[in-house]
Amino acid sequence: KGFSNTFTGERRPKGDRIFEALGATDELSSAIGLAGEFSSEKGHTFVDQLHKVQCMLQDVGSNLATPLSSAREAHRKRTSFSEKPVLELEQWIDSYSEQLPPLRAFILPSGGRSSAALHFSRAVCRRAERCVVPLVQAGEADPNVAKYLNRLSDYLFVLARYAAMKEGKEEKIYIKPEP
Known about the structure:
The protein is mainly alpha-helical. Helix content is 64%, strand content 3%.
């Protein structure tokens, strides 16, 4: 009938922004899974990090499925989202960034299958973030969820560049077309 339940038992229309955010987060996990498979084929050591991210996205989904406006304390405790995963992403970003050459131009999603799949994941992550921010602003989701997605998109960008570098693949740069 076009309705679904949140974790709190509240019935909402399937078009509700909570379900939009949940769908975008699920799609993000799927995109990261694909990127992980391509990266695994190339022997990248960061694949375990991608798996950990997918697990964290399950926790993101739990938080989103528990709108704070209808959550009891027991729900909130069970689905809270801390700042710790955000800080871990920042450490990972710093670690990979230190190994990369400076970025001197806009790059296009490219650099081999692993890199391109990571760039695609980054774009899906940005969409998920755009779905989550209004929920945070409305007081329905933990602000750390939006922070996590924000840092995750940066992590995926840096990781895409790192994968291209490790595989010896060229990143295509943006060239402004002549008028």
